[in-house]
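[step 3/7] fold_predict: job queued, chain A
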Amino acid sequence: MKTILFDLDDTLIDTNYRQFSVIKHSIINLGESFNLDYSYYLEFRKRQKVSNSDFVIAHYPLIEIEEFRKAFSANIEHENFLNLDTLIVDSSLLLKISTKYKISLLSLRQNRENGIKQLKSLGIKNIFENIYFIKHQDKYVKASFIENSKLKFDYYIGDSEIDKIAAKSNNILFFGVNSNIHNQEKGLSINEILVKLL
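[step 4/7] structure written:
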């Protein structure tokens, strides 16, 4: 049976509203008012292709950016914010895929416990044979994890450059989804990819 490795954030689930909400929470807690709306946030990041830190620098120049990053990191995986994420993937399609392939999940998360709780609440935890949460270090962290763990996969489905590097470095066929905020005009949706693999 062939194997598929999935990324989680912005591949299977939409995290954009969570990110926006944590930015708003962090800015307010750092003493600034926040009157930007979600649609503006999305459009600005899509158009300018910027990170959350760059978004804050552009709109809140008086905020100490390292203080913002600390506040953002402290809250981005809190249960209250994780509950804002929604499924992009059709869970029934994911379940069908799991009958034809061995499927695993690899995600950059600091808090495994909250990650597992989130997968349970979304109803997809038990679909995966293996779930790997690793801490974000650099753009090669997933590539190194796969190489060092000696794990073998036929396909890798993800949304980011980190995912693409991990696949290429380990000779895995990569499918890039179009749900990343910076590349929504390119590629197929996660559900379109799964249909092709069935």
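[step 5/7] annotate
Residues 16-29 form the longest helix (14 residues).
The mean pLDDT is 95.
exit 0
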